[in-house]
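lol ok so funny story. i was supposed to be doing the assay writeup but got distracted and ended up predicting the structure for this chain instead. priorities right. anyway since i did it might as well share w the group, maybe its usefull for someone
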Amino acid sequence: MELQAAGGFNLYGQEVQHLSSCGWTKLDLFDHHNQVLSGRWKLPVRGLPLRPGLSTGQLNTVPQVGKAEIYLRVVNARDAELQAMAEINPRNSSLYQYPPLVSKSHVMNVSPEEDMLLMLRFYHWPGGSTAWAPWQHRKSLQPLLANEEWIVAWTAIRLTRPESSGAETDSRCLVWNSGVHDLPLYHSPAPPALSLSGMQPEKLGEIFEQYGDARVRFYIFSKTRPDYPFPLESPAIDNDNMAAPEGAYIPHSRRNPLVEPHSPTDGITVYIDGARFLPDAATVTRVTGRIFDKNYDQFGPDISTRIDLNSDIFHPRYSYSVQIHSPNMPPTSTLLLKVYTLDRFSRELALIGWAALNLFVESGTKRAPSSDSGGIQISLNEGGHQIRLYHRSPPTERPLSAESLASSGQIVPCATLLVRIRKGKTQHQEEDPTELPEYSQGVYYSETAQPTLGEILLYKAMNSRSVVQVREVIPPLSGSAGQKMMSDFQLSDWVEKTFNERMKNSATRPFQLCCVSPYLVTSGLVVSVDTAQNLPWSGLTMAHVCFNPPAALYYGDPWRTYDHPVPVDDIDLDSDQNCPVWRDGFKTFTRRISHNHLTLIIHLHEIHFQEKAEHSAEQAKMEATSMEEWTQEFRAGSQAWTAMRVFYKNYCDLGAFQLPLYQGAPTMSVLHALRSEDCRAKLKDLERKNMASMKKTKNNQSAKCI
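and the output, tada:
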């Protein structure tokens, strides 16, 4: 049972103007003898969220909503007429009792029978997602029509099966048909259940028309409900969606390992051809780099590219080459590159990412040398290479290599560089006349840039971007000076001077990964509350997560549950109470609209156990973990909260964050302020006005949430 109410204010001071869920409870209808628990019962209303899978005993671990209770009667059908005449009067509240505990394993202890059938029906209320179905709350409740006019699909399965599939098995030895089941749905009307009892489930598809490709997946269990009924697996995706869009990524690998030894007298030519699928916020870009050995000692000249004014800003061409004539080039030599851009939104210089490529391999293998000793025969890593961009620099405490960069952390999704390595010419020979190859020719080895499933989805979104030439973005970036630049020389000269000045005179900030591709509403958001630090309290910590403004401002009633905080209660009881850690803090919020000032609110509560009988605090903690069936209550203590913006320029603000915690709970005026202004700036303004104060420990340390 779900209790709904209107009026007053919710946990965050927001006025409740319509019916919304405020609590729930449940009652077992049968005892372990399968007898109806008839009588007058009073049930404490439990706090959200709804968790109907809990047993009656486990309900005692869920905090009660104030002193709210639901009074009800359960009667046998034979007594219905007599009970209908009973007087309903608050003065008779003493006649109502708390229900007895019913062992979960004995509820509905029915023996398997051969004719047991489970039939599932699916209903659709016409009028779209904003129409009110009969069972939704803002309208008067009404039953479904007797002719089941609104049923759209159905399916059925036998609830029992033979104990063994052997030929000599007695068919009367039946067990429950437990396990995971995946069934197709069929068009309505649904036949009577009795007519299905003699049919084999696998024959239903031959008799009834399937409801498109729709299927239902569910779990049947006996006795104890498993914690994870569905095994962990990768998302099911159609084969057509597994491949990247045509031309976005061409798989290509070296068939035969290199065996020709590299001579110290051989020169090396490095070509920086271009980049692919750069982030949305990229405009004019430049690639710089150097060649280092594993100890970061430089060999050869510095690398700094120009850019083709006629190329696409997301797929720029650099057409850059450099010849290296160093007779003492070590086997561990690594080409380390950085890609810079003028950020589209901030107009500041930003470092998109790092890329690395080993110049040599051990002859006969694809393995990069790990030592500079002369006992290893090496070959030049010739050919075209498509290499990834990484968000962080290689760890300097480890020897430099392409592998060490790859282990440094997060990739820049979809972004790659196109690089070629060839045997160089002597200083007396002419410049290599080889033209820049097209990516569609498949000349770049792309094993290390194989896209992930998420990148394949991003490729599809990025393919819809319009082609923007480099020359088109330079005038807006240059401001008023751009109106005077007409020739290619002026445009190129402005790019060259701008990069030189900003790379020399200012600290380059890292690129914001949230600006790789715009946020898709269908993607949803995932929030993980991992830990808190320096909390100045001694009790357990309950965390709640919600969005401000609530989703009800954008969607109809089907999304009303998102107006309420979602508890993150899987706390590690072995962690420090001042620094609690949540084992599984992930909460998913799907189909969120992209609101400019959507704010994530995290609210922490200090919880104390009210000890009963002879239970010590330590025993209470242990029994709360195992959900023992004993009555206990909770007492709320201190509170703290924090907030962060969700979107930046219509891009989801992804990443890991350490947020300061503020005293108490956010007031309604604070929430209204955060709805209309940038979260970071507004929080600082609230601090100046003493409307939000940092929560600190006795040692004057600031409390934080991660």
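The chain has a mean pLDDT of 75. The longest strand covers residues 411-424.
back to the writeup now i swear
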